[in-house]
Amino acid sequence: MTQRKIIHIDMDAFYASVEQRDNPELKGKPIAVGGLPDSRGVVATASYEARKFGVRSAMPSKRAIQLCPDLIFIFPRFAVYKSVSQQVREIFHRHTDLIEPLSLDEAYLDVTENKQQIGSAIGIAMQIKAAIRDELQLTASAGVSINKFVAKIASDMNKPDGLTFIAPDKVEAFMESLPVNKFHGVGKVTAEKMNMLKLFTGADLKRLSEVELVRLFGKNGSFYYKIVRGIDDRPVEPNRETKSISAEDTFLNDLSNPTEMKEQLDRLAAIVANRLQQYDLKGKTITLKIRYSDFKQLTRSQTLPAAFCDPETIAATALQLLLKTDILEAKVRLLGIGVSNFVDENNPAGDAQLKLF
Length: 357
Prior knowledge:
By secondary structure, the chain is α+β, with helices and mostly antiparallel strands. It is built from 13 helices and 15 strands. The strands form 4 sheets. A 5-stranded mixed sheet has the order 5-6-1-7-8. Strands 10, 11, 12, 13 and 14 form a 5-stranded antiparallel sheet that branches. Strands 3-2-4 form a 3-stranded mixed sheet. A hairpin with a 4-residue loop joins strand 11 (283-292) and strand 12 (297-308). Helix 10 (210-217) crosses helix 11 and helix 12 (258-278) runs antiparallel to helix 13 (311-323). The longest helix has 21 residues, at 258-278.
């Protein structure tokens, strides 16, 4: 089989960079795109100047302003970001139609066969980065390797404006040396569990059998077993569809106070609403996900008569679903909110799926 050539492109601080590009007075200043620092505002993207203070995406805006008192909040202009994202996509299409967008600001490209018959994936990545810089006055970071997992990790290694190549014969050694908290999809709680088990790097994971990894980490164990050996057979899927948009968080300390749970639901609702608005989507069904300290998990859903995308409706409905469970009798380890059953505004009687292409 021909070895695949995969590029992961990730725009640098995308929303914030667009705002700084369009308003030169914002250049060099710490800015956050997102909701104002009220009880439900969250940061969608922070400029690199703001990140120096610890401001990050999905952080409550109130916390962000505490970390960086001079932070400038910019209300999102999603129509503009979507337009710029489409311009970036057009640059990708000069080289390949095998494009799998993950969001407005990142995508996988399979350039094993490419339109310009360029033999080097690194050369293609360089051309894409140059076009984004010259035509759009923005920067992007690229990761180049033989599969999606490694390419995505590589793109994050030299931000901003970076380009990292992990050669085929270096992939396995790269995965062995990688700290477990750098594995895409491994959150802080899972990383802490791994560290408690004295699993600090890919090499540590590699010493365990697949059976042992599955016992410790469930179905993800099989994925860890393969990926630490550089195996990721997932294809780039240009017509990938998403049927729901969600956000969840696993807590370092289990929650037992309903007030704390409500605060977390408010925060998650703001994140979900933010993502819905990125794509001009409205849904009718809300799903609440709860995992207790004993790892028992349940979901509860409710379908509303009218479509919505606002954080208030999402938070209030999720709270109602939460109050119908046994929250007073158990400690909560994870909360998640999902919105689905999307409605096409041009066809209110029919459901719509989010096409990321």
